[in-house]
């Protein structure tokens, strides 16, 4: 049953994104930013962790999970280091994913002919 809920919730998030593209004519940057902010706000209210418990990978794979990671990292480090921990915590928790995106993007540009 967990696969069903993961598929349903992940698909629903994707449908919302597609509606933002098609109906509201938002650019990909606006849509991604909106999802990150929504994930951060839900995490700030403690709701995103409940969604992860319910939907599993359906909630952890989409871009909303990045906003959740930012808030969780900031809150963990804020408890340890105060205000400076808010800033450093966001970078500490998400640095592996950002670094991987940069490295794989660079390798992809080396292997394939990028347009632009």
From TrEMBL:
<dbReference type="InterPro" id="IPR005562">
    <property type="entry name" value="SpoVA"/>
</dbReference>
<dbReference type="InterPro" id="IPR014204">
    <property type="entry name" value="Spore_V_AE"/>
</dbReference>
<protein>
    <submittedName>
        <fullName>Stage V sporulation protein AE</fullName>
    </submittedName>
</protein>
<feature type="transmembrane region" description="Helical">
    <location>
        <begin position="31"/>
        <end position="48"/>
    </location>
</feature>
<feature type="transmembrane region" description="Helical">
    <location>
        <begin position="83"/>
        <end position="112"/>
    </location>
</feature>
<dbReference type="Pfam" id="PF03862">
    <property type="entry name" value="SpoVAC_SpoVAEB"/>
</dbReference>
<keyword id="KW-0812">Transmembrane</keyword>
<feature type="transmembrane region" description="Helical">
    <location>
        <begin position="6"/>
        <end position="24"/>
    </location>
</feature>
<keyword id="KW-1133">Transmembrane helix</keyword>
<feature type="transmembrane region" description="Helical">
    <location>
        <begin position="54"/>
        <end position="71"/>
    </location>
</feature>
<keyword id="KW-0472">Membrane</keyword>
């Amino acid at each position: 049953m967990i696969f069903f809920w993961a598929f349903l919730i992940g698909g629903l998030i994707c449908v919302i994104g597609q509606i933002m593209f098609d109906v509201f004519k938002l650019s990909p940057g606006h849509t991604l930013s909106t999802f990150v902010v929504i994930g951060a706000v839900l995490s700030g209210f403690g709701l995103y962790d409940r969604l992860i418990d319910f939907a599993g990978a359906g909630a952890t794979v989409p871009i909303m999970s990045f906003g959740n990671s930012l808030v969780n990292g900031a809150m963990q480090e804020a408890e340890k280091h105060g205000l400076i921990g808010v800033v450093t915590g966001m970078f500490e928790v998400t640095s592996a994913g950002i670094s991987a995106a940069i490295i794989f993007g660079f390798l992809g540009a080396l292997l394939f002919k990028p347009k632009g």
